[in-house]
Write a structure and sequence with these properties.
The chain is α/β, with parallel strands linked by helices. The chain has 34 helices and 34 strands. β6 (153-160) and β7 form a beta hairpin.
């Protein structure tokens, strides 16, 4: 037998390409990423589930991935194997799949094989993890025994219609290095007692989060320095304190310091598959179906018994086969070792399993494939807690709701008379439902990681694949290198192209029948002429693939307005969520909001940082304040002085205008740099100002031994006493700052940049820096309240005088303070637009150096460049496994939309954390009900008025039809009607004018031709004159 493997890619450098894997590294960490990059994974079975797992592992960056399958492509594979086409039918599955899979990641050695797997094969290819899909039970047990005995991690994954299974065996001793995936807890110390039971006190602002029996280490503690960099096992007496044992032998605590959680390895033991089948550990993922895992554990085993007895699998929707299948399950349950596996054998579930188990659904395989791929990563890295040991998942709610009516006989759906690419999906849902899927029209908002996976699923499901159907996708962004690690529809040669366009072209190759339309315009109030009434009204539903709350809320409002179902999803590392929005049945996305992230107080940032996050934010603000905002302001002034002065004089205080004037004067000032040496000189002086002089002035105002008015130490608690930094050209971070700052300034003025560190070091030594002289009378604020009060005073200063001036006077005054056009029109400038992913532009270099120098000032533990980049760039950690899984969950909900489910309990919101692992599913929340008069309404209800009316007709209509007297009518900020306004001469005659005309007159705008309706709000009384608090809004369709 030949064991030759066909190689599809050249092996590149084993070094981790952080520009590609950056988002994944933020999830896993560099150490785990390095382990993954040395892993050798075998995936057997290249149908839909196998290719999904392979795709995720290859994107993730394993060293070698061997894909294996002995069988040939069949029509049934086309429902979920997106790298197969009709022309591939009859060819070996692995051989067909390898070409497309090898394109996903040039750092991964992708091989394929159609040989029988044996011991020699596994040894030769150094297989660390064996993933087995679509295998019979006897083969699973055979492989399971071998892997358990030889230390090869085993993952078995299967999907059968709307049912899925994962089994993990990582051996007798498996070490988990990080059980939850959370960043180590870090807290600021306010005091450590000198006692036989040393108590560490922390801020009372929030609970510390430490657990009893865990371990911590210390950094930056003054006085009691013996605790620094040493580990202590802790007890937790309160949410704000921990104890670390006897501290009497240590020095007295003087201040400063942080306490940091130390994560300890956790060893777990796995049983073999053979043992686990008899005594299974079952991970529960849906608390509404407590007995489902035990039922499915038996059902998956029963398939092999059924096939062995009847030489075939159960026929789709065959009642006779379902009864036979149930009998086998029943016997397996009774024959289980000492006692039945479950006392709650559910005949209905078991028979459903029999009727749809030969079907293949891409969304199910996305869910199981995403989870299984994450288990592969856990197996080779020790990062996150593995599944122990069986996970069973189902989505039977996707079936028609009448399937769950109390009846033993379920009607058999109609099937197509000939095989099509959807025949495996038809086994589950029938041909009539497949036609509905193909005729459906869906809008995918976003073509990033979630959007790419969504489009892939849609193409396999057949959404929009009829001439009456359609898929619409939009994304404003172009493709970047860091996208390629998760956004699998893109390749390196697509970098710079528009995401939506490339995604549409790629997904069309997966299913040529897909009617997909790509847009590059965001969905915003400004683009409502594109995504207008006609666009939304033709849709059957919307799926969000967005990464910001503001955009999601806007889409949500549009869906509520047009009465369209919406599924919103999001990921954060290994965490994912799904929210289903169904017209009239659920609340909307915007009905509940997460609390905003707490902001860092300005006073803390400016004078009293105590965490590295504070110094990073300060560095980011410093970057913008030096290289972006003032240059943009100067550029705007240079382009059009009058317009700039008009805009600046309007709605700004004297304080804010003064700041802008100073910015413009500085950018165009006579001391602006003329060559790179000037840039070095500027940078060296800035270093002195930021990291020496400012700190020296702070210590002059508040010396190290300064006491408050109550006699307490000023530098205590959350306040860390800083120290000045003396520039040292031999200190790498010091020189990093000079190099980055000099080049950033040079770029602004089109001066040739110099990256030669030796040259810059030699020149910076020649610069003379004046000795610091403290200033008296410098006000430094001790707390946030003082700072806010002062800023408010400055903003209000001269406000009365300013209000008395005409607009022309304000503009002329402003222009008198600014440089003359003739003096600046030949000066070329350009602002830095912060770009976190370009490692050559010095942006992150500057912020990293600045943040760590600031941290050194305050004796805060420094951070590496990667962490600073994540925080400064507000980068969301992301990994392909979570994305694949969550889009599968979304598409399962889309099945329900197309089915037209009317019961709230049919839908599932989800929260998943693959790191734990945790799966939580719940019914969506119904909309809040309100009442006016005797009418009940929710956010989905409104008054619909068709046809343009005069204001008089409008008021009479509401009085007659709804028994409501309108007391005020408005749209946005424009009041269209109120009895008070009607008395004004300018409003004479409004009662006889059309509402649309009144709107155009008051807003001085012509209503665009694409706008057919206005959204009107109103207040009203009942016919007896009693105020009514809440009423629905009005959609006023005037054309």
């Amino acid at each position: 037998m030949s064991h030759t493997l066909q190689h599809q890619t050249s092996l590149l450098t084993p070094d981790i390409d952080e520009s590609l894997y950056s988002r994944q590294i933020y999830v896993m960490g560099k150490e785990a990423m390095n382990r993954l990059a040395h892993a050798h994974v075998l995936i057997s079975g290249m149908r839909g589930l196998g290719v999904e797992i392979a795709k995720n592992i290859i994107l993730g960056g394993a060293r070698t991935v061997v894909i294996h399958d002995c069988d040939k492509v069949q029509y049934e594979d086309l429902s979920s194997q997106y790298y197969f086409s009709e022309s591939d039918i009859g060819k070996n599955r692995a051989k067909v799949a390898v070409e497309k899979l090898s394109e996903l990641n040039s750092y991964v050695h992708v091989k394929h094989s159609s040989d029988m797997i044996n011991e020699t094969f596994l040894t030769t290819n150094k297989i660390n993890v064996y993933v087995l899909t679509d295998a019979k039970l006897d083969q699973q047990i055979l492989v399971g025994n071998y892997c358990h005995e030889h230390g090869i991690k085993l993952i078995i994954a299967n999907t059968k219609g709307l049912f899925g299974q994962i089994f993990c065996d990582f051996g007798e001793k498996f070490e988990v290095l990080d059980t939850n995936g959370e960043n180590p807890i870090t807290q600021v110390i306010t005091e450590i007692s000198h006692d036989d039971v040393g108590v560490v006190f922390m801020s009372m602002d929030a609970r510390h989060g430490f657990e009893d029996g865990s371990y911590v280490t210390f950094h930056g503690v003054q006085g009691m320095t013996e605790v620094n960099e040493h580990e202590f096992k802790i007890s937790v007496p309160s949410p704000f304190t921990i104890t670390i044992g006897d501290t009497r032998k240590f020095g007295i605590y003087e201040g400063g310091g942080t306490v940091i959680e130390v994560k300890k390895p956790h060893e777990i033991k796995f049983k073999s598959l053979a043992d686990s089948l008899i005594e299974p550990e079952l991970l529960l993922c849906d608390f509404s179906k407590m007995s489902m895992p035990s039922n499915l554990h038996l059902a998956f085993q029963a398939l092999s018994h059924f096939e062995e007895r009847y030489h075939a699998l159960p026929k789709p929707w065959d009642e006779s086969d379902a009864e036979k299948f149930y009998e086998i399950v029943e016997k397996l349950n009774i024959d289980n070792r000492d006692k039945p596996l479950t006392d709650e054998l559910n005949k209905h579930w078991i028979k459903l399993f029999s009727k749809i188990c030969t079907g293949d659904l891409c969304p199910m395989q996305a869910v199981i494939g995403g989870i299984a791929a994450q288990e592969v990563m856990k197996a080779v890295t020790g990062k996150f807690m593995p599944i122990r040991q069986f996970l069973y998942f189902d989505a039977i709610e996707c079936l028609p709701e009448n399937v769950f009516q109390p009846s033993d006989i379920i009607p058999k759906p109609r099937f197509s008379t000939k095989k099509t690419r959807y025949c495996s999906q038809e086994i589950v849902f029938g041909a009539d439902f497949q036609e509905k899927i193909c005729k459906s029209k869906y809008f995918v908002v976003g073509a990033g990681a979630i959007g790419c996976e969504m489009l892939k699923n849609f193409s396999m499901m057949g959404i929009g694949c009829d001439k009456e159907g359609g898929v619409y996708v939009t994304d404003m962004d172009s493709i970047e290198k860091s996208n390629l690690n998760r956004q699998f529809l893109f390749r390196s040669w697509n970098i710079g192209q528009m995401k939506s366009k490339v995604a549409a072209e790629t997904v069309k190759t997966m299913n040529p029948m897909m009617n997909i339309h790509a847009y590059i315009d965001g969905v915003l109030p400004e683009t409502e002429h594109i995504y207008d009434d006609k666009f939304f009204e033709r849709l059957d539903g919307v799926v969000n693939a967005l990464d910001n709350v503001k955009a999601r809320e806007y889409i949500d409002r549009r869906c509520v307005y047009y009465g369209k179902p919406l599924v919103d999803s999001g990921t954060l590392g290994t965490k994912a969520s799904v929210q289903v929005v169904v017209p009239y049945l659920t609340e909307s996305y915007s009905s509940t909001r997460d609390p905003p992230d707490p902001s860092i107080p300005m006073c803390l940032l400016h004078n009293f940082p105590n965490m590295i996050e504070h110094t990073i934010q300060w560095a980011r603000d410093n970057f913008a304040g030096l290289f972006t905002i003032p240059v943009q302001q100067a550029d705007e002034y240079q382009r059009d002085q009058k317009e700039f002065a008009h805009r600046t004089s309007k709605n700004l205080s004297e304080y804010d205008r003064t700041e802008i004037i100073e910015n413009v004067k500085r950018i165009f000032g006579s001391d602006r740099p003329k060559d790179f040496l000037d840039c070095i000189k500027w940078s060296r002086n800035l270093f002195q100002q930021l990291f020496h002089n400012t700190i020296a002035q702070l210590l002059y105002n508040f010396p190290r031994n300064h006491k408050t008015t109550t006699g307490e130490r000023f530098w205590s608690g959350n306040k860390r006493c800083p120290h000045v930094i003396n520039f040292d050209v031999h200190n790498k971070i010091h020189l990093d700052y000079i190099v980055a700052a000099s080049n950033l300034l040079a770029h602004i003025y089109f001066i040739d940049q110099i990256r030669d560190r030796q040259y810059i070091a030699e020149q910076v030594l020649k610069i003379k820096i004046p000795e610091f002289q403290p200033k008296s009378g410098v006000q430094i604020f001790e707390n946030e309240e003082q700072l806010k009060t002062d800023m408010e005073k400055k903003r209000r200063k001269n406000s009365i005088v300013e209000d008395d001036k005409t607009e022309d006077e304000k503009i002329n005054k402003l222009l008198n303070h600014l440089p003359k056009y003739d003096d600046i029109h030949n000066i070329n400038i350009r602002a830095h637009e912060f770009e976190k992913d370009d490692d050559t532009n010095f942006h992150i270099d500057y912020i990293a150096a600045t943040a760590n120098l600031r941290a050194e000032n305050y004796e805060i533990q420094s951070a590496d460049r990667s962490k600073i980049k994540r925080i400064a760039g507000n980068i969301i950690p992301a990994i392909a496994t979570t994305t694949a899984m969550v889009t599968g969950l979304v598409c399962l909900e889309v099945y329900k939309f197309i089915q037209g489910h009317k019961n709230l309990e049919s839908y599932k919101n989800a929260f998943v954390n693959l790191a734990l692992p945790f799966f939580g599913f719940s019914e969506p929340v119904p909309p809040r009900k309100q009442t006016y008069l005797d009418h009940e309404f929710t956010l989905w209800d409104r008054f619909d008025i068709q046809g343009d009316m005069t204001l008089e007709q409008f008021l009479e209509y509401f009085k007659k039809e709804h028994k409501l007297i309108v007391t005020m009518l408005s749209t946005g900020l424009t009041v269209l009607y109120s009895p008070h306004f009607m008395k004004q001469p300018s409003r004479a005659g409004d009662m006889k004018r059309k509402v649309s005309e009144i709107y155009e007159t008051l807003t001085h705008t012509k209503i665009p031709s694409h706008v057919r309706s206005l959204i009107l709000d109103f207040t009203c009384e009942d016919l007896e004159g009693n105020d009514i608090d809440d009423v629905p809004y009005i959609r006023y369709t005037f054309r």
